[in-house]
């Protein structure tokens, strides 16, 4: 077990480059199952969720080769449609493998998926979507079994779910006939996934909008014409979290290797609250401002305010003058971490599972905390860096799922944070 020891109150400065997007890389790796030739990706983050996905693919018969920030996946001889239960339970994203496995092998089974504990996170939209595509589904204590030859259909999603859109898009890419996904999610990770599938010969239009049209290849597998590595987009949640950190604690922090366009909602909101930013095509500079004002946020599907940035932003709001409201509309269990921030001295009223009122500014006190999930874990790091004194953050493995050696990178810009073995 490891934990972070953090001494708050230090001023940050310098440059912090953003790594490749976890949530893009995981789905692109899954999509490689639709290819009958190796696919190479670059800008792969070195994080635990990626290691887990790699292992899952290897256990299904895929070959993987990693070097620096690149990974090559050769799924020409995929042999198993079963996912390793232990790993699949650990990462929710494993569910996206069902799409390519079912479309390619005609069957797939998987346990109830895992991942961060942020609400109920059911899988009914996946099940309904696969039924629409003609799959047979049986449920047992072990999990789900899907089988059948997939045929395109019109699918309306009750909510623009990210992984459901991605999974159905992958499955439909090599299915028979046309699929139209309505009320689809439009996150940049989905646009990039469609781009990869198209480079492999899939016929997909509309990705990045709410209607995606896929003309299946009638079971023909995909193949890249160009073997050059496909570069993963920068992680927009990491970029946004560093912007928040810079707005709280830096003289001037340059967030580089990022895509400001992917976090317009955060940038707009934080500027409305008084933060001073400048930006280029792939960088953002931000510094502390003396005049941070309260602002309300409502999380929602892209391009609205990302639910994954809600927890770091709440720390920003503890330092803003006045009363701010957080309205979390995507997940129902994603404000629980605020109890710990209250114990640090923040003035927070948890109105219900979706809404909280934060009144600032508050002086945060150092504390010993347990990271409840990946994004709240980073919020605790930010809170500890703001607080005066020495804090401890436990359950570092949650944070390692999504942020590559975060303590080294934060130290490089002046933070006092050490990883220690317990
Ligand atoms: C993706 O989760 C991300 N994970 C999450 O990031 C992110 O918070 C979320 O999208 C929203 O942006 C990955 O990409 C691996 P959803 P996902 O399906 O796809 C409900 C992180 O920290 N729903 O868009 O699981 C669901 O309960 C993670 O990196 C159903 O009801 O989220 C939620 O209320 C955490 N039935 C809403 O839809 C279903 O079958 C949206 O969730 C599926 C979803």
Automatic annotation (TrEMBL):
Domain Enolpyruvate transferase: 7-410
Annotated positions binding UDP-N-acetyl-alpha-D-glucosamine: 92, 308, 330
Encoding gene (name): murA
Annotated function: Cell wall formation. Adds enolpyruvyl to UDP-N-acetylglucosamine.
EC number: 2.5.1.7
Gene3D superfamilies referenced in this protein's UniProt entry, alphabetically: Enolpyruvate transferase domain
Family, as annotated: Belongs to the EPSP synthase family. MurA subfamily.
Alphabetical list of HAMAP family matching this protein: MurA
GO biological process: cell division; cell wall organization; peptidoglycan biosynthetic process; regulation of cell shape; UDP-N-acetylgalactosamine biosynthetic process
Residues found modified as 2-(S-cysteinyl)pyruvic acid O-phosphothioketal: 116
Pathway per the UniProt entry: Cell wall biogenesis; peptidoglycan biosynthesis
Keywords attached to this entry: Cell cycle, Cell division, Cell shape, Cell wall biogenesis/degradation, Cytoplasm, Peptidoglycan synthesis, Pyruvate, Transferase
Record localization: Cytoplasm
EC primary class: transferase
Catalytic residue positions: 116 (proton donor)
SUPFAM superfamilies: EPT/RTPC-like
GO molecular function, one term: UDP-N-acetylglucosamine 1-carboxyvinyltransferase activity
Protein name per Swiss-Prot or TrEMBL: UDP-N-acetylglucosamine 1-carboxyvinyltransferase
A Pfam match: EPSP_synthase
């Amino acid at each position: 077990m490891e934990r972070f020891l953090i001494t708050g109150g230090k001023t940050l400065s310098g440059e912090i480059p953003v790594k490749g997007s976890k949530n893009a890389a995981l789905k692109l790796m899954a999509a490689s199952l639709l290819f009958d030739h190796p696919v190479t990706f670059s800008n792969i983050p070195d994080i635990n969720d990626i290691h887990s996905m790699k292992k899952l693919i290897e256990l299904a018969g895929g070959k993987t080769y990693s070097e620096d920030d690149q990974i090559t996946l050769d799924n020409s001889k995929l042999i198993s449609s079963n996912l390793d239960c232990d790993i699949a339970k650990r990462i929710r994203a494993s569910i996206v493998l069902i799409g390519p496995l079912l479309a390619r092998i005609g069957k797939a089974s998987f346990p109830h998926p895992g991942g961060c504990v942020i609400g109920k996170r059911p899988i009914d939209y996946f099940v309904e979507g696969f039924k629409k595509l003609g799959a047979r589904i049986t449920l047992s204590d072990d999990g789900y079994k899907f089988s059948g030859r997939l045929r395109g259909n019109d699918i309306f999603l009750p909510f623009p779910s990210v992984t459901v859109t991605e999974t159905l898009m992958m499955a439909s890419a090599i299915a028979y006939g046309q699929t139209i996904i309505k009320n689809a999610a439009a996150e940049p990770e989905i646009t990039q996934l469609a781009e990869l599938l198209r480079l492999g010969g899939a016929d997909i239009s509309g990705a990045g909008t709410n209607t995606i049209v896929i003309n299946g290849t009638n079971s023909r597998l995909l193949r890249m014409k160009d073997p050059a590595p496909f570069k993963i987009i920068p992680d927009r949640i990491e970029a946004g979290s560093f912007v928040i950190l810079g707005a709280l604690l830096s003289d001037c922090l340059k967030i580089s290797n990022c895509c400001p366009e992917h976090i317009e909602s955060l940038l707009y909101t934080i500027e409305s609250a008084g933060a001073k930013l400048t930006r280029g095509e792939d960088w953002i500079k931000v510094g502390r401002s003396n005049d941070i004002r309260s602002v309300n946020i409502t999380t929602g599907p892209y391009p609205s305010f990302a639910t994954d940035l809600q927890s770091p932003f709440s720390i920003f709001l503890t330092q803003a003058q006045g009363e701010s409201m957080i309205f979390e509309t995507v997940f129902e269990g994603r404000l629980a971490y605020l109890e710990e921030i209250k114990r640090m001295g923040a003035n927070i009223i948890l109105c219900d599972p979706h809404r909280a009122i934060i009144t600032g500014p508050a002086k945060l006190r150092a504390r010993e905390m347990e990271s409840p999930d990946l994004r709240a874990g980073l919020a605790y790091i930010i809170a500890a860096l703001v607080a005066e004194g020495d804090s401890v953050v436990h359950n570092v493995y949650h944070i390692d799922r999504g942020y590559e050696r975060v303590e080294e990178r934060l130290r490089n810009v002046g933070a006092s944070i050490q990883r220690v073995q317990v």
